[in-house]
Design a protein that fits this description.
With about 250 residues, the chain is of the alpha/beta class. The chain has 9 helices and 9 strands. Helices cover about 45% and strands about 15% of the residues. The protein has a 5-stranded parallel beta sheet with strand order 2-7-1-8-9. Strands 3-4-5-6 form a 4-stranded mixed beta sheet.
């Protein structure tokens, strides 16, 4: 990790708009973007492929240690190098793409679109509570801190991953509004009612805020923005206004 590369850390609960804001900021600044949730979705996908039970974290941890290989780079993986991989061994490659975000490859097959499904989204919350998994992903996430800068979004970016980030933002929004956003997001592949999504978000908030490792919380030096009634443009403008002072530039 290059510590002199500037970082903007954006944290907040599910469906608070972190991803949308991070994308807009990365595009405006010309920086890289870290979608930490995408990595947890990736591992949730792998665990799902293994058909493992989340009530048996020891088996999951054993598989992660012995059968999961993570790599990060700007180029897609070499397909030939994955031909000899036999189940349960799995190779995951995170392809860094400036502005457009990362792509994820599972045994040389891109799975990025699948990771946005409702099913994988729910499973990722369970994956994020496994200590071994979180520890494995920390160095991988920090590898994405590359010039000219990084916009990192998640739930512990400003408290755990990048505690010395130049600028920390904590996004909040009313849970009913967040549920409506998630309901609209899954319009083409919706398997839950609005009420079910609302209840899921309430439960996920409870889990994220009270989990034993890296709970969701606002960093002491973070700027809190309630985006319940704010447009994306307005939130981005608020963050950009704070950038010069945070980076100590004119």
């Amino acid at each position: 990790m290059t510590n002199d590369v500037p970082v903007i850390a954006i944290d907040g609960p599910a469906a608070s708009g972190k991803g949308t804001i991070a994308i807009a900021l990365a595009e405006d600044l010309g920086w890289h973007r870290l979608d930490s949730g995408l990595l947890y979705r990736t591992v949730a996908y792998v665990i799902d492929q293994w058909n493992l039970d989340y009530s048996d974290p020891e088996t999951i941890q054993d598989h992660i240690r012995n059968f999961l290989s993570f790599s990060v780079g700007e180029n897609p993986p070499n397909a030939d190098s994955h031909k000899q991989i036999e189940f349960p061994k799995v190779s995951v490659h995170v392809q860094i793409q400036r502005l457009t975000g990362s792509k994820v490859w599972y045994n040389a097959q891109e799975i990025t679109p699948v990771l946005r499904s409702e099913h994988i989204s729910r499973l990722s919350s369970y994956a994020a509570r496994i200590p071994t998994l979180r520890n494995e992903l920390i160095p991988i996430q920090r590898e994405l801190r590359q010039p000219p800068g990084l916009v990192a979004e998640g739930r512990d970016m400003g408290t755990v991953l990048f505690p010395t980030a130049d600028l920390k933002i904590f996004l909040t929004a009313d849970v009913a509004v967040r549920a409506q956003r998630r309901f609209d997001q899954y319009a083409k592949d919706r398997k839950q009612t609005y009420e079910e999504i609302l209840e899921d978000l309430r439960e996920r908030d409870r889990q994220d805020m009270h989990r034993g490792i890296a709970p969701l919380k606002k960093a002491e030096d973070a700027i809190e923005i309630d985006c319940t009634y704010l447009s994306v443009k307005c939130v981005v403008e608020k963050v950009l206004q704070a950038v010069p002072a945070a980076l100590k530039v004119a």
